[in-house]
Write a structure and sequence with these properties.
This protein is α/β, with parallel strands linked by helices. 36% of the residues lie in helices and 20% in strands. It has two domains: 3-119, Rossmann fold (3-Layer(aba) Sandwich), CATH 3.40.50.720; 127-360, Alpha-Beta Complex (Spore Coat Polysaccharide Biosynthesis Protein SpsA, Chain A), CATH 3.90.550.
Amino acid sequence: MDSREKIREALGEDAVVIYGAGLMGQSLCKVLSEAPYHRDMECFIVRSKSGNPDYISGVRVISMEEAAAYRHRPVFVALHEKHIRDAVRELNEAGFDRLIPVTFDNDLWTDIREAWINENSLLPYEAVPSLWGMNEQKLHIYVVHCEFDKELVEDIQDTAYEISIQAGAALADHIYYEAVDDVGDNISNKNGQYCELTVLYWVWKHDRAEHIGISHYRRRFHLDAADLAVILSGNIDMAVTVPIINTNTVKGQYIKDHGKNEWDIMEEAVRELSPQYAGALERVGNGSFYYAYNMFIAKREVLDNYCEWLFPILSYCEKKIGKKEDAYQNRYIGFLGERLLTVYIAKHQELRVAVVRKHFIESKEK
């Protein structure tokens, strides 16, 4: 039984059971309880009640010891990818035999929230659903790699329009790809903070294709032959992936996950450098979704305009904030870039934006 069949079966139950009461579990609970799903929530199961409330959004929270009655029911395992394998193993050992893993990145969660977003008309512009027309000779999608790439469960080959490129090449001990981000005008040595945006900067400065895209070695645009339709006609300006949904506001969740200082300085940068975007930033910050991964495809002129606006703001933030000791939190420029992509789209309501699916490839267990 594939994942879609599992979810259809799970949604046929009287009520939904979710393992995991964190951000992923709460997001899944919110989406499945609303249109088009309208499912009752049975409970959240957690490993231990210690530190967890008795109820979250009116749904009871129970421990593994209390959950024996659900061992043969479909159970959504809603956790961060790095925890999912261990959780599934533990649940299987405890006798749970109908598990449906849902992570922030996997394709199943993309499908679930896409239907919810469309049903509730949440996008702030006239979105064009998953339709594409590309002349492969006029489209370049750069697939971002680094020297620390994980081994994947799928052997994914680049399509004719994809170009694998090594990010942070200026900092790397080994170069694995012909295309690198440290040739010519570049910011490759800032990759620890800018993440895939060092590739975006390089592409902006060096590639003149009519349409440019940025994706990741584990996150690819899902563009099949049936989708290839209209982009060269000029009907589409930009494509983004299905947005991330926050149960908190975008600003509130960013502050919780990364800290208030960076967000405040980003707001300051926008006020100082691009005050006409301040209203869009406020709307996005107070909203519930953003376009993640700094992953998009755009017309050449749109990419130019976006990068001319984006990089001065990021440079302002970098100078004000500096480097962080924690390697993950030091990626704050990349995290801010994700939210700023959404701000740019919110500001430019004249853009015709397509929301397209991405395919997430899991890494092999070490």
